[in-house]
Design a protein that fits this description.
By secondary structure, the chain is of the alpha+beta class. The protein is 18% helix and 40% strand. It is built from one helix and nine strands. Keywords: Signal.
Length: 126
């Protein structure tokens, strides 16, 4: 009985350690996003990821940008913006973000876009 408890505890600790270490740098795995970018220079955001490698460009795969509009995208903090993100397109998001730092993508609508724009797709911070 005591040996079974010790074995179960050891297995549980090993699983927690393994899962914790794989999620620490989830930036190599694509995450989905579905966010609303506010009208007239509004913003929308993805969830956070941790950078796996310093200064490595992130990957953005745009699935849809609502209403045939275009949005801009950049990784925060310290990312170079991409203009004109459209449906079914892929982009590299250059940045100066360090390994282990939290980051996310910020989408920005044009100042003269009169409506909110829904954007969907996947991204990873690398």
């Amino acid at each position: 009985m005591q040996k079974n408890r010790r074995a179960a505890a050891a297995i549980g600790l090993a699983l927690i350690t393994a899962l914790g270490s794989t999620s620490a740098f989830a930036g190599t795995v694509f995450s989905t996003y579905n966010t609303t970018v506010g009208n007239n220079n509004g913003k929308g955001y993805t969830g956070y990821q941790k950078k796996y490698a310093s200064n490595r460009a992130g990957d953005l795969h745009s699935r849809t940008v609502g209403g045939s509009y275009k949005v801009d995208a950049r990784m925060l903090p310290g990312g170079t913006g991409i203009s004109g993100v459209t449906d079914s397109s892929s982009y590299k998001l250059n940045n100066t973000i360090s390994r282990g730092d939290s980051t996310r993508v910020e989408f920005n609508n044009g100042i003269f876009t009169p409506v909110d724009v829904q954007v969907t797709g996947t991204w990873r911070s690398n």
